[in-house]
Specification:
The complex is a heterodimer of chains A (90) and B (454).
Chain A (H helix, E strand, L loop, with lengths): L2 E8 L5 H11 L3 E10 L2 E9 L7 H15 L1 E7 L1 H7 L2
Antiparallel strand pairs in A: 1-3, 1-4, 2-3
Chain B lengths: L3 H13 L4 E8 L9 H15 L3 H12 L3 E8 L2 H4 L7 H18 L4 E7 L6 H16 L3 E9 L3 E3 H17 L11 E5 L20 E7 L2 H9 L6 H30 L3 E5 L1 E2 L9 H8 L9 H19 L8 E2 L7 H8 L5 H7 L7 E7 L4 H18 L3 E8 L7 E3 L6 E3 L9 H5 L3 E2 L9
Parallel strand pairs in B: 1-2, 2-3, 3-4, 4-6, 7-8, 9-10, 11-12
Antiparallel strand pairs in B: 1-7, 4-5, 5-15, 6-12, 13-14
Classes of the chains: A alpha+beta (90), B alpha/beta (454).
Chain lengths: 90, 454
C-alpha cells in the first residue's frame, strides 16, 4: 500500500475538509486517518491516505490538490509518507 | 503511525528553514570513450553522457514533487578529462573541444553544471595533464556549465609544487579570460589537496577512476534547520549543543539517503554515497555563519570561531554517518564567503579576514572557498595561498581546496556580483609580502612522515 500524507494549512473557513474529501472520493483515494488542530490560529489538518487504487499518479494528485488549495486560500501539500518515516522512525 | 506534529516539523524544515537536497549528481565514467581520434572521442563522450543521464533531471524533479522536498540541482560529474583525452588531445585547443562537448551535453540533458574538466597531479604531471591545465582559462571562458578542478597534493604523495606554481598562473589567466563577467571563470575552478573521488558538489566534482561505470551521489543541505534547532538550546552546555546538532544532522541526512535511494532505484544506477554537507546559499536563513553565531559568537571570525566550526563539523558527521548507508564526498560544513550572507556581513564588518578563514579551513569540510581578492594579486601569491591550503590538507589528512577569484579591474573595498547560488562578495585584502622565491623553487614537497603506514 502506498501511503500519502496530505496536509492542509491556512485560515479556517467553511468547507475545507469537504472540498478535499470530495476530490479524494472522486479520484478513488482512500482516507485512513484524519487529525486536525489549530496551530497559532491556523487551521492545520493531516490526512493519511492510500492512493494505490487511484488512476492518477502522485504528482498529478499533488498538483490538483495544490490548485484546490489556491482556490480556497489554504496550502495543501501531498507527500509520500516515506519522507516523514525516514526522519521520525528508525 | 505518523502524527501531525512530526509531519509539521518536517514541513517547517522544508518551508521555513530551507531544508533541501542540494544536488543529485550522476557520476559517469568516460574511460570507455577514449579514442585516438578527437572527433570520435567527443562524439562518444556526448553520446554516453546524454544516454546515461537523459532522465536525470526529470527523475530529480519527480522525486521532489512526490516527497515534497526541493531537489535544487541535478548535475553530472565525469572521469578527469586529462585521463580521457590524453591520447586524442595534442594541444590546448583539442582539450577545449572536449570542454565544449561537455557543455553541449550538459545543455542537452538540462543539468546546470558538469564537473570533471580535471587533472590529478598530486605527485607529477604527464604532458596531457599539463596541456589540460593550460587549457583551463580558455575552456572556462568559452563554456557555461563546465567546472574544472586540479588536485595538486595529497597526504600520500606530498605537494606537487610545480603544479601549485602553474595553478597560481592559471587562476589569474582564468580571471583575465572572463574579466568581462567579473572573472566568473574562477568560480568554476577549484584547486584541491586530497580531492575525493565521489564528491557530488560543484565546482570540485569529478568521477574518480576508483568508481564504477555510473553512480548516484547525493549532497544534502540544511544550515537553516541546524540554526533553528540550536535556538532551542541557547545558553545550554556544549554536550547539549552537540547532541542537538547530531540529532538534527541525523534527520536531515535521512532525507538525503531516501532521495539517493529513490534516484538510484528509478534511474537504475547504483547508489554511491551521501555527502553530509551543510552547504549555505545567499538566501536569508541558509547560512553556516549564522549557526556559528547561534553557538555564541557575536560575528563569525571572532575568537572561538575555529573551535565552534570544529565542533559543528564533527557533530554533523557523527549525526549524519548513522543516518546514511554510505557517506563520502566532502561531508561537513562549507564556509564559502560569497554564498553565505553571514560570511559576507562578517567580512564587511571587518570581523572575518583571509587569515582567519585559513585557520577555519583546518577544521571545516573543504577550504578557502568563493573568496574574491584584488585583480592585481600576483600569480605567485595565489600559488602561495594554494600551497598553504595544500599543506593544511596534507598534514591533517583532510580535503582542502582553494577557489579564489582575483577580480580583474577591482580592488579591496569593491564588491563583485556572481549571481544565483554563487552570490556576491566583498573583495578581501591579501597579504602584500612576497613569496616569489618560495614558489620559484619548483619540485615537490615530499609526503609527510605519517603517510607511511604500510
Amino acid at each position: 500500500m502506498k501511503k500519502t500524507i496530505i496536509t492542509v494549512v491556512g485560515n479556517d473557513t467553511v468547507g475545507i475538509i469537504a472540498k478535499v474529501c470530495t476530490y479524494l472520493a472522486e479520484n478513488n483515494v482512500n482516507i485512513l486517518d484524519i487529525s486536525q488542530t489549530i496551530v497559532q490560529g491556523y487551521f492545520n489538518m493531516m490526512m493519511i491516505t492510500d492512493t494505490s487504487a487511484s488512476e492518477k499518479d502522485a504528482a498529478t494528485i499533488s498538483k490538483d490538490l495544490s490548485e484546490i488549495g489556491d482556490k480556497i486560500g489554504v496550502v495543501i501539500r501531498c507527500q509520500h509518507e516515506d519522507i516523514f518515516n525516514v526522519m521520525h522512525r528508525i | 503511525m505518523l502524527n501531525i506534529f512530526e509531519v509539521n516539523e518536517t514541513n517547517k524544515m522544508i518551508e521555513q528553514e530551507n531544508l533541501d537536497v542540494r544536488t543529485i549528481t550522476m557520476g559517469i565514467s568516460l574511460l570507455d570513450c577514449i579514442d585516438s581520434d578527437l572527433e570520435t572521442m567527443n562524439q562518444k563522450i556526448y553520446d554516453k553522457i546524454t544516454t546515461k543521464a537523459k532522465d536525470l533531471v526529470a527523475t530529480g524533479d519527480k522525486i521532489a514533487t512526490e516527497f515534497g522536498i526541493p531537489v535544487v540541482n541535478k548535475r553530472v560529474s565525469v572521469t578527469p578529462i586529462a585521463l580521457v583525452g590524453g591520447v586524442a588531445c595534442h594541444s590546448t585547443e583539442d582539450f577545449v573541444s572536449v570542454a565544449k562537448t561537455l557543455d553541449k551535453a550538459a545543455k542537452t540533458i538540462g543539468v546546470n553544471f558538469i564537473g570533471g574538466y580535471s587533472a590529478l597531479v598530486s605527485k607529477g604531471m604527464t604532458p596531457a595533464e599539463e596541456l589540460l591545465i593550460r587549457s583551463i582559462p580558455q575552456a572556462l571562458a568559452v563554456t557555461e556549465r563546465v567546472c574544472s578542478s586540479v588536485n595538486v597534493g595529497s597526504t600520500k604523495t606530498g605537494i606537487n609544487m610545480d603544479a601549485v606554481k602553474l595553478m597560481g598562473e592559471i587562476v589569474l589567466e582564468t580571471a583575465e579570460a572572463s574579466k568581462d563577467q567579473d572573472s566568473l571563470g574562477c568560480a568554476k575552478l577549484v584547486v584541491f589537496c586530497n580531492a575525493p573521488d565521489d564528491n557530488p558538489f560543484m565546482a570540485g566534482a569529478f568521477h574518480g577512476v576508483t568508481e564504477a561505470d555510473c553512480i548516484i551521489n547525493v549532497g544534502v543541505s540544511g544550515p537553516g534547520v541546524v540554526k533553528t534547532a540550536l535556538e532551542a538550546v541557547r545558553g545550554a552546555d556544549f554536550q547539549t549543543l552537540c547532541e542537538m546538532i547530531k540529532r538534527t544532522a541525523f534527520k536531515v541526512t535521512r532525507v538525503g539517503q531516501l532521495v539517493a535511494q529513490e534516484a538510484s532505484k528509478r534511474l537504475g544506477v547504483p547508489f554511491g554515497i551521501v555527502d553530509l554537507s551543510l552547504a549555505p546559499t545567499p538566501a536569508i536563513g541558509d547560512s553556516v555563519a549564522e549557526i556559528l553565531e547561534e553557538i555564541g559568537l557575536e560575528r563569525v571570525g571572532a575568537p572561538g570561531t575555529t573551535a565552534a566550526l570544529a565542533l559543528l563539523n564533527d557533530q554533523v558527521k557523527k549525526g549524519g554517518v548513522m543516518a546514511a548507508q554510505a557517506v563520502g564526498g566532502l561531508s561537513g560544513a562549507f564556509i564559502p564567503v560569497s554564498e553565505d550572507q553571514g560570511m559576507i556581513d562578517a567580512v564587511n564588518l571587518g570581523a572575518l579576514t583571509l587569515e582567519k578563514l585559513e585557520a577555519m579551513t583546518c577544521v571545516c569540510s573543504v577550504g578557502l572557498d568563493m573568496i574574491a581578492i584584488p585583480g592585481d594579486t600576483k600569480a605567485t601569491t595565489i600559488a602561495g595561498i594554494i600551497a598553504d591550503e595544500s599543506a593544511i590538507g596534507m598534514i591533517n589528512q583532510k580535503t582542502t581546496a582553494v577557489r579564489v577569484i582575483p577580480v580583474i579591474g577591482k580592488g579591496v573595498g569593491e564588491t563583485v556580483e556572481f549571481g544565483g547560488l554563487l552570490g556576491y562578495a566583498p573583495i578581501m585584502p591579501v597579504n602584500q609580502f612576497s613569496c616569489d622565491a618560495f614558489v620559484e623553487r619548483g619540485g615537490r614537497i615530499p609526503a609527510p612522515i605519517h603517510s607511511f603506514k604500510n
